[in-house]
């Protein structure tokens, strides 16, 4: 796996994915593929997708989309998602009842440059579902329409925050899943206590509102999937951000699995 102490320079996505693709050769639950290709500055880039099929848990698989690297200067989520998949390969029961589609690097040109925006100077997290011409956005939108996920989790890092926080989009289920994720991750990093985070009203690290154009389910999808956005404090050590994120992902999977199990008896 890529070193937590520092990312290789120049940044190369192969350093993120290489060992994970090797793992697919030995783990029958894990598959890796290229979801799409695009060109930028005369170079070709891949949008990589990994699929993990967890063990049967007595119900139809819960289909989740996991996303990281929407902003190229936020490597913690990318590394965390790769490490999370590697951990599942070693212990598949952690994903019992789930089918996971993971996109560890949505913005490969921004990652390569170490910039928030892509090579075209666009913040991809303001481009979704607004007729964007950005190829990364169009590829992810096609995946979202094709997969119709039951839930989505997007990983970010904020260099202006004072601790962990997340967006619930004002949905009760989203907040029910976000709170235990923050509580679990809080064993590693503090939660942002402020009442105003990223320009939005917040309570205990939970924001109900959100920006327009963020990565989300297709507008026409019904019922709406839960959509968690989890943020780590980018100024904290990378190792701690990664550990906190993996912990949060485990908590979300465990709590939603419990919610589904309970709902079967209602």
How would you explain this protein's 3D organization?
- The protein is an alpha/beta fold.
- The chain has a single domain (13-263), classed as Aminopeptidase.
- Helices cover 33% and strands 23% of the residues.
- It has a 10-stranded mixed β-sheet with strand order 1-2-4-3-5-10-6-9-8-7, with helices on both faces.
- A hairpin with a 2-residue loop joins strand 7 and strand 8.
- Helix 1 (13-24) packs parallel to helix 2 and helix 2 crosses helix 6.
- The longest helix is centred in the C-terminal third of the chain and has 26 residues, at 238-263.
- The radius of gyration is 17 Å and the shape is globular.
By CATH, the superfamily comes out as: Zn peptidases
**Alpha plus pi helix count:** 6
Distance between the termini: 43 Å
Q: Over all CA atoms, what is the radius of gyration?
A: 17 Å
Element string (H = helix, E = strand): HEEEHEHHEEHEEEEH
Which fold name corresponds to the CATH topology? Answer: Aminopeptidase
Largest beta sheet: strand ordering: 1-2-4-3-5-10-6-9-8-7
What structural class do you assign from the helix and strand content? alpha/beta
Gross CATH architecture: 3-Layer(aba) Sandwich
| Sheet with most strands | 10 strands, mixed
Spans where pLDDT lies below 50 across 5 or more residues = none
Q: Describe the global form.
A: globular
Can you identify the CATH class?
Answer: Alpha Beta
| Whole-number count of domains | 1
Into which percentage range does the β-strand content fall? 15-25%
Total beta-strand segments: 10
